[in-house]
Fold:
Amino acid sequence: MTLTLKKIQSPILEEMAEFEKKFRHSMKSNIMLLDKIMNYIVKRKGKQMRPMFVFLSAGVSGEIQEATYRGAALIELLHTATLVHDDVVDDAHTRRGFFSINALWKNKIAVLVGDYLLSRGLLLSVDNEDYELLKIVSEAVREMSEGELLQMEKARSMDITEDVYYEIIRQKTASLIASCCGVGASSAGADVLTIQKMKLFGEKVGMAFQIKDDLFDYGDLEIGKPVGIDIKEKKMTLPLIYALQNTGWLEKRNIIYQVKNKSDNPKSVAEVIEFVKKSGGIEYTTEVMNKFYQESLEILNDFPASEYRDSLHDLVKFTIERTK
Structure:
């Protein structure tokens, strides 16, 4: 049976609809320009996976409460702020097929909008004394920044080892999903051990999620992300790291040269993709992804059986089996 987000959401349908209303309200501003931009952001949001992780984690760990709505909103506000700033840093003009804020309103306004979203999130927590939730999410934002900077630092020398790669994706991607699950558990009144357990579960899911994303770069699937985009951006991901670790010095030197100097040439990109496939990089990376996936399920299965746990299980499966 094909998994759909609608089916996965079934135990929290009412909560998600209520969250939608509350979140729209939290984005309102008296300044006309800001209100226009906030409306634009709300309209083009994605699949709502992060709030789903928050609400389902709360259901698994205890009871969904008012603090759960605020926790989900906090994550959305802070995460959206980082995306708006990222688009400025990357000089990106589109995100998920829509124009980015900086493309429509220029960099100066985009940076200020990111700051505004950040402050809305901070005030939402401080005004309601949700200090524990704020701590969990702020730690994730710090990790995401560190992960981006570590990746930039390593991209110059192209000497990323497997361990460094795991650290980069743990910080850049997994920390956010871990914070969703930690916030869900904390908002439901769970104890410290349960919160830590949910965060670890989210981290494993995030690792598998990012590795799946990196596999798309070598895709035999027709997907939204163009094939070879990571290579063009000189990003060292696991399939390439593994392939380079398991080849001779001469071939390694040639491939690194192609990535460093010829990554805007489609022929060179195709050569790198072919090299990775031939070296077993895809199979190895798929194995690693499945290992993180299984580890996440083992943690989840420690929790009592419930419709929330079933949906969380399906949500994890959905993130791993997605085709875009």
Q: What stands out?
A: The chain has 15 helices and two strands. The CA atoms of residues 89 and 317 lie 32 Å apart. Confidence is low (pLDDT under 50) at residues 221-225. The longest strand covers residues 94-95.
